[in-house]
Please model this.
Amino acid sequence: MDISKATADQYQNVRGFYYRVIDGIAEMTYGAGWIKDVYPSPEFLRKSIDNSELFIATEGKKIVAAMVLNHSGNDSYREYSWPTAAADFEVTVIHALGVDPEKAGTGYGRKMVEYDIDTARLNRQKVIRLDVLKGNVPAERLYSGIGFRYLHTLPMYYADTGWTDFELYEYVL
Model:
């Protein structure tokens, strides 16, 4: 498995990858609540690629996992008093981490997050933050198992879920 930044010419493959993930989530008991072309939206994917924030894991030419890393959390992040003081530019936020349904349970999600941890350390980040839809047990287990600390459940608005409870996680570097 190779991890790299997605390029503009890979946009359609990235979009197709997220479609496969969303189809796979629909069959799961626990899911992320994503909806095709709502989250992740085409605009979000294009912007993330253009800003060199979208990372893909590939086997051959097939995308098997993807995520977005940037410094922007949901607007509701500002309502919470995070235990680790850090300016926005010192915080890496994980978005839209997905694994191809055919590869679920193979450790690819873990490898993507470990890649993020290594990259954040190299970039002298203080902390990694993210939110998980409450009840998304596989994601909760993944992040907790790597060492992310659950902090708080906070209602947040996203286009695909509306106002819903999300669990906040933090990993201090």
Notes: Residues 2-172 form a domain with the Aminopeptidase fold (CATH 3.40.630.30). The longest helix spans residues 11-26.
